[in-house]
Amino acid sequence: MIEALTLPESQLIPSGTVPDDNPSAIVDHYVRLTPVGAEFLGDEPMPIEAYGWLCDSVGRGVVALRWFIGDLLAYGERHYGETYAQFQDAFGCGYHTLQQYRRVAARIPLEERRAEVNWTAYQITAHLEPETREALLDAYLIGAIGSTDELRDEVRQLGVGEDCELLPACPKCGGKLTSRKCKGCGLDFPQAVWWLVELVKGE
Fold first, then answer.
1. Is the pLDDT of residue 16 over 50?
2. 9 versus 95: which is more confidently predicted?
3. pTM attached to this predicted model
4. Mean pLDDT across the stretch 61-82?
5. Which pLDDT belongs to residue 11?
6. Which residue blocks in the chain are alpha helix, DSSP H?
7. Domain boundaries, the chain
8. Taking the alpha carbons of 183, 188, 191, 196 in that order, is the dihedral positive or negative?
9. What does the alpha-carbon distance between residue 81 and residue 69 come to, in Å, rounded to a whole number?
10. Which long-range contacts (CB under 8 A, 24 or more apart) does 20-25 make?
């Protein structure tokens, strides 16, 4: 039996008393979280307003979780050196995903992050100087840059693409991997792609 992560029975909203103007209360009435997913309650679908509220809330939570994981890893590296790596398996994510989270969080201080900017936009611009990054993100927010793909193109046109954190660390030595080769061990990019494929197969 799945153990539900929900309120005690005495705090659950009784059937028929769910307020229409409180989407979060409606969600509590129609769905509960378990360690392995969402359990939907009853036979009637939840109101569309509640469904929209739930999707928005979960989406914001996903973004916050990426930052939180990145901050935890950056903190661990800063205070415990390489020892912090032994705890990475706890997140259930691949190594390169975690390193992306860590690098972006380490490069962008908490006070410079804006909730209205999606995490991918920060990932694309994390390696830039703060003034340049903020100018691009401002343009992205007002629609002058229409998508993250266009944002990526703008960054490439700045001529700083080689330092872009879109690429993972070198799978052989952990060094900086560019579009041509690793700056650490000299592994060329085609070889690096082969290494990455083999690593993915082994995960």
1. no
2. 95
3. 0.64
4. 92
5. 35
6. 23-30, 48-80, 95-107, 119-125, 130-141, 148-157, 189-202
7. 9-46, 117-165, 167-203
8. positive
9. 17
10. 20/47, 23/47, 23/49, 23/50, 23/52, 23/53, 23/54, 24/53, 24/57
